């Protein structure tokens, strides 16, 4: 085998993960030899184009099963193993969960290289996407002025006066913005 690239996860079973995979064979090798790996079994061949074969396969490797089943981590297909470059994968999740997973990986199969890129750089949490422009403006000012600080003396009226709007209008904007933000928090929990 030259490489296996997992394109998607089709099913998680007790005995492993059924994956849609693209397999590249070395010259003179056959698809049947995949089972010689001991952790992969071709279930169905879908298409073949030259040296590339798309299959459904059962992966019973503990690494794949652990990566799929760990809470707070999402392994993002495509990922794969290549005879020259080794294993490459992308995952996202909570920092502590990824840290534990990488520790486990280092014990099971010491990698040559691990690169971690924070998704926080240059991206947002997505919460602002759910807010109107006015809600973002109101919440930003409230945070800037310390409205949410536990010992704050800032009142809704102070914020409303600064924005030139009625206190009740400002209160409604904050209430709706907080509701949208809390829905995102609920989803993340």
Rg over CA atoms: 25 Å
Strand count, sense and closure of the main sheet? 6 strands, antiparallel
Number of helices: 5
Helical content stands at: 25-40%
Number of strands: 6
Q: Spans with pLDDT under 50 lasting ≥5 residues?
A: none
End-to-end C-alpha gap? 41 Å
Q: What overall geometry do the principal axes of the alpha carbons give?
A: elongated
Which whole number gives the mean pLDDT? 81
From the helix content, strand content and strand pairing, which structural class follows? alpha+beta
Strand content: 25-35%
SSE string = EEEEHEEHHHH
Main attributes?
single chain; 189 residues; alpha+beta; Arc Repressor Mutant, subunit A; 2 domains; six-stranded antiparallel sheet; 5 helices; elongated
Structure description:
With 189 residues, this protein is of the alpha+beta class. The chain has 2 domains: 3-108, no CATH class; 128-188, Orthogonal Bundle (Arc Repressor Mutant, subunit A). The protein contains 5 helices and 6 strands, in the order E-E-E-E-H-E-E-H-H-H-H. The chain has helices spanning 62-69, 95-108, 133-144, 156-163, 167-188; strands at residues 3-13, 16-24, 40-49, 52-59, 73-82, 86-93. The chain has a 6-stranded antiparallel sheet. Helix 3 packs across helix 5 (167-188) and helix 4 crosses helix 5. The chain is elongated. It starts with a strand and ends with a helix.
């Amino acid at each position: 085998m030259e490489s296996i690239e997992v394109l998607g996860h089709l099913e998680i079973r007790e005995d492993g993960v059924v994956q849609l995979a693209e397999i590249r064979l070395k010259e003179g090798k056959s698809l049947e030899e995949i089972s010689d790996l001991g952790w992969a079994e071709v279930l169905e061949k879908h298409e073949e184009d030259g040296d590339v074969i798309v299959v459904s396969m059962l992966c019973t490797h503990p690494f794949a099963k652990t990566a799929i089943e760990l809470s707070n981590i999402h392994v993002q297909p495509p990922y794969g193993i290549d005879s020259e470059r080794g294993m490459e994968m992308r995952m996202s999740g909570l920092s502590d969960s990824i840290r534990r997973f990488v520790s486990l990986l280092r014990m099971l199969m010491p990698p040559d290289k691990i690169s971690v890129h924070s998704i926080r750089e240059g991206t947002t949490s997505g919460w602002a996407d759910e807010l109107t422009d006015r809600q973002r403006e109101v919440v930003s000012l409230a945070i800037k002025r310390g409205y949410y600080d536990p010992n704050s003396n800032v009142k809704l009226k102070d914020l409303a006066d600064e924005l030139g709007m009625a206190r009740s209008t400002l209160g409604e904007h904050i209430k709706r913005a907080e509701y949208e933000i809390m829905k995102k928090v609920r989803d993340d929990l």
